[in-house]
Design brief:
With 277 residues, the chain is an all-alpha fold. It is 72% helix and 0% strand.
């Protein structure tokens, strides 16, 4: 099971990395990943039902550690999709209020499940048989209604709750990062850009590295970090781990300069159109 699981989680992580690189829009990214992960979970379920587990310990390990890590990704991207579709378009104060409201939801879940948080965070095991073995649920442990509606052949009473804990940590980080971005813009109004970069971040990084390789900025004396920071300031955009993005560009199987090629084609077309007038 662990070999199959490790291959599956690697496949999912690689696909997440690929789509994150290709899609800069959080809505499109989340939508694509939700569909992909749902399909992979369906395959995992068929594998589990067919192969079963060699021991109770293996079953506990799967429902306590392995399955929740995959389900957490689904919960996370589904949450991001909902957050972004409902995000207000008003002033920063309104946006911050919305983000705080979403953070409050995470806090309420934590407070409602405090005892299980303690159990899970301290790596306790004394209730594992009741929590993470199919058909061993205990009604006295305050089960969620969700469990009674789930497929008990592929669920235990608390595997989904573990996934929620993992996902909520990621969601909290996302929301706090969004708040930080709002505060940064408010505290540095002079850095606010009057022009916006509306292509993908990947495209901008491709352009930056092209300019750097041609040594057309400061006669080639400026390093890539300085140039990237200048562009990030100009467009008021966070380019994140730009070097990792560059490595992704290098590893493309086809058309490593996709954006630069499109620039050239677009300019030539415009010139040709003007010649025909």
């Amino acid at each position: 099971m662990n070999i199959y699981y490790n291959e599956l989680i690697q496949k999912i992580d690689q696909h997440v990395a690929y789509l994150t690189f290709e899609l800069d829009n959080p809505l499109l990214l989340s939508e694509s990943l939700i569909e992909f992960i749902v399909n992979e979970i369906a395959k995992l379920k068929l594998h589990v039902l067919k192969e079963g587990f060699a021991s109770i310990e293996d079953e506990i390990d799967f429902f306590k550690k392995l399955k929740p890590n995959i389900i957490a990704k689904l919960i996370y991207y589904n949450a991001i999709y909902k957050i972004e579709t409902k995000r207000p378009h008003g002033c920063d104060k309104l946006k911050k209020k919305y983000l705080n409201k979403e953070l409050s939801k995470l806090k309420r879940f934590f407070e409602s499940n405090l005892e299980f948080y303690k159990y899970y965070r301290t790596n306790s095991t004394y209730l594992d048989i009741k929590y993470f073995v199919r058909g061993k649920h205990d009604i006295k442990l305050c089960l969620d209604t969700y469990y009674f509606e789930s497929d008990h052949s592929f669920s235990t009473s608390h595997d989904y709750k573990v996934a929620k804990i993992i996902a909520n940590d990621l969601i909290q980080f996302y929301l706090e990062d969004q708040k930080k971005n709002l505060s940064s813009k408010r505290n540095n109004p002079k850095s606010a850009s009057v022009i916006n970069w509306t292509a993908s971040k990947t495209a901008l990084i491709e352009l930056i590295y092209a300019l750097h390789s041609k040594a057309v900025i400061d006669y080639g004396n400026s390093n890539i970090k300085v140039i990237t920071k200048a562009f990030a300031t100009l467009f008021d955009i966070d380019l994140g781990d730009f070097y990792h993005t560059y490595l992704e560009l290098r590893n493309r199987k086809n058309n490593r300069t996709k954006f630069l090629d499109s620039l050239r084609d677009s300019l030539i077309k415009k010139m040709d159109d003007l010649d025909e007038q």
